[in-house]
Specification:
There is one protein chain. With 348 residues, the chain is an alpha+beta fold. It folds into two domains: 2-204, no CATH class; 208-342, no CATH class. 33% of the residues lie in helices and 29% in strands. Strands 1, 2, 3, 5, 6, 9 and 10 form a seven-stranded antiparallel beta sheet that branches. Strand 14 and strand 15 form a beta hairpin.
């Protein structure tokens, strides 16, 4: 968890990064920015930090040697000697430009920010923030002129929208630092340049990450395997989802064999689950996770997955919040229609 209530913004510099394919170049600042207005500093901290809320951490990586990760090296220089902040910010700007080699990558401001007094998982650390704003919004400005009001417009940055962000916390350097990233435009291949091409980070396989991946895997198994391959009806899918939720809520540790025994029960489906789990882990380059501590924070984040809805033609939606055993499915031969019978204690 993060706590930014006592954080200080110590230094900030802004450079402009163009598209390398279009040969738009880099426009570097001559010196760090001086922030003398407390309100401006508060707004900047809100813009940079308010979007970071998840315990989903990454670390810098390299296939051969961590020391070959360029961002890791530039950030390490700043942490070791704060006087190198401005020079290293220019190195980072040129590196980002070199990685901006897709025609759809937008020109934007690149911010390098030095923070102190960040509380991350109970540890007070300093941090470096790397941010890029690519999207501008249009704002109306109403002002008084003489005895009338005039309207014009300006293009600016919406502080509630952070396009790309990265916070590097000065802890666990030997493992590639603890890193949190944001990429709200990461829906297309060209957007991967921020995480993979520029930062070159890999997810940290802690309890939060493992729990989150398992929830995602169970969702895929329900939708792809139970529904498409084994042609299991919606009620059985709901049953699987609700038993999965109960298992997570009632256990502190995930154990793969126990999970299959209590949640799946059917040998054929259990075998299909094991095959899907193996393929899922290989596809995402995950280490086999047969036992780990369940993260309450990841479970809270994944609650939306456990919301089960049975859609009946275009007439009804049945929302199943807990026990699927209170639903009974049947066929009315007289009407030639299927039906669901719902059991309950009282109306509310």
């Amino acid at each position: 968890m993060f706590d930014f209530s006592e954080v200080s913004l110590n230094q900030i510099v802004v450079h402009n990064i163009g598209n390398r394919i279009e040969e738009q170049g880099v426009s570097l600042s001559k010196s760090p920015m001086v922030i003398s207005d407390d309100t401006v500093e508060t707004i900047l901290k809100q813009y940079f930090l308010s979007h970071f809320k998840s315990d989903y951490f990454y670390s810098f990586s390299n296939d051969s040697d961590l020391q070959l990760n360029e961002v890791f090296n530039h950030i390490s220089q700043i942490f070791e000697d704060e006087s190198t902040f401005f020079e290293q910010s220019k190195n980072l700007a040129w590196l980002l430009y070199e990685r901006s080699n897709h025609p759809k990558i937008k020109t934007g401001e690149f911010y390098v920010v030095r923070f102190s007094n960040i509380n991350v998982e109970g540890e007070i650390v300093s941090g470096i923030g790397l941010f890029k704003s690519e999207t501008k919004d249009t704002y109306l400005r109403v002002y008084q002129k003489n005895e009338n009001f005039e309207v014009d417009y300006q293009d600016g940055i919406n502080i509630k929208k952070l396009d790309k962000g990265c916070l590097i916390f000065n802890t666990e350097k030997e493992f590639g630092y603890k890193v949190s990233i944001i990429d709200t435009t990461n829906k297309a291949t060209e957007a991967l340049y921020w995480r993979d091409g520029f930062l070159s980070v890999m997810p940290r396989e802690n309890e939060f990450y493992q729990t989150n991946q398992l929830i995602d895997m169970c969702k895929g198994f329900s939708e792809q395997i139970l529904n498409e391959t084994h042609n299991v009806d919606k009620q059985e899918q709901v049953n699987f989802i609700k038993k999965t939720e109960a298992y997570f809520n009632n256990n502190d540790t995930f154990n793969n064999e126990e999970f299959k025994e209590h949640v799946i029960e059917n040998d054929e489906i259990s075998e299909a689950f094991e095959e899907y789990k193996h393929e899922f882990e290989n596809k995402r380059a995950l280490a086999p996770a047969d036992q780990f501590e369940i993260s309450a924070e990841a479970l809270k984040k994944g609650k939306k997955y456990f919301r089960s809805i049975i859609k009946l033609d275009k007439n009804f939606h049945v929302y199943v919040h807990s026990n699927p055993d209170f639903i009974e499915k049947g066929i009315d031969n007289t009407k030639g229609l299927k039906y669901y019978k719902l059991y309950f204690h009282e109306e509310s």
